[in-house]
Amino acid sequence: QVQLVESGGDVVQPGGSLSLSCATSGFTFSSFAMSWYRQVPGNERDLVATIDSDGRPTSYADSVKGRLTISRDNAKNTVYLQMNSLKPEDTAVYYCNAVRITQFYWGQGTQVTVSS
């Protein structure tokens, strides 16, 4: 059974930091590229960052470059998103995604709210 479980979402003030985690099981994690997406109600789900199976970040959304960092630990089957200098516009539900050729899996999401 494939599982992707995000955690770490919280309410934080502007300028603050959060660290999100996505623990996975049920598939060969080290063979999959991993991504973080985010979604605001009424909007499409947007790509935030992607990291390849070897641990090289391959893309960041322009709006998060220099503030958010994606990483992974293949020994722990976990992908991370370190979020610094958070802004109110970063408020969203954050989802992790696993993709390999025609296989793709989603987590259930974790809420991040940036508000004073």
What would you say this structure looks like, in words?
The protein has strands spanning 3-7, 11-12, 18-25, 33-39, 46-51, 57-60, 68-73, 78-83, 92-100, 103-106, 110-114. With 116 residues, the chain is an all-beta fold. Helices cover 0% and strands 53% of the residues.
Task: Determine the N-to-C terminus distance.
Answer: 40 Å
**What is the share of helical residues?**
under 10%
How many beta-strand runs? 11
**Low-pLDDT regions:** none
As a whole number of angstroms, the C-alpha radius of gyration is: 13 Å
**Average pLDDT metric:** 96
Any idea what the shape is? Answer: globular
* Biggest sheet record: 7 strands, mixed
Question: What fraction of the residues are assigned to beta strands by DSSP?
Answer: over 45%
Order of SSEs:
EEEEEEEEEEE
Task: Enumerate how many helices there are, as a single number.
Answer: 0
The secondary-structure class comes to: mainly beta
Which SSEs are present, and which pair or pack?
Layout: E1 3-7, E2 11-12, E3 18-25, E4 33-39, E5 46-51, E6 57-60, E7 68-73, E8 78-83, E9 92-100, E10 103-106, E11 110-114
Parallel strand pairs: 2-11
Antiparallel strand pairs: 1-3, 3-8, 4-5, 4-9, 5-6, 7-8, 9-10, 9-11
Summarize the structure.
The chain is mainly β and 116 residues long. 0% of the residues lie in helices and 53% in strands. Strand 4 and strand 5 form a beta hairpin.
